[in-house]
Amino acid sequence: MSNKIRHEGVIDSIDEGCVHVRILQTSACAACKVAGYCNAAEAKEKIVDVFCNPRERELLPGQPVTVSASGDVAARALLWAFGIPFVLLVTILVIVLWQIGDEGIAALSALLSLIPYYGLLYLMRHRMQRQMAFTIE
Does the pLDDT of residue 1 top 50, yes or no? Predict the structure, then answer.
């Protein structure tokens, strides 16, 4: 079994060193035969940035391509977006609750602790964007 995430897409536009690919991201039940009658079926159109030299592969807008990312990239993205904030939230909640004893202040402190974390992620977005990127197959 392959440890890659693959999506079929169409090249939307090309910038210097970056190819913008339009993909149709579907939920698991969007491919189901009865998806049209069910409210759970969901499909979204997304633009994925692929950092490469478009001249090397003669890529043109409107061309169908397959973009892929390794499973490690997906795991790392989940860790940064959900795993670490959850641990931070619970840790701050427990520490403040233990020190002060007020549940309201502990909950508010835990939620406010996420502001600097996501601010730091925002500041590091360009660095992380190159590490967690899709490639064109």
Answer: no
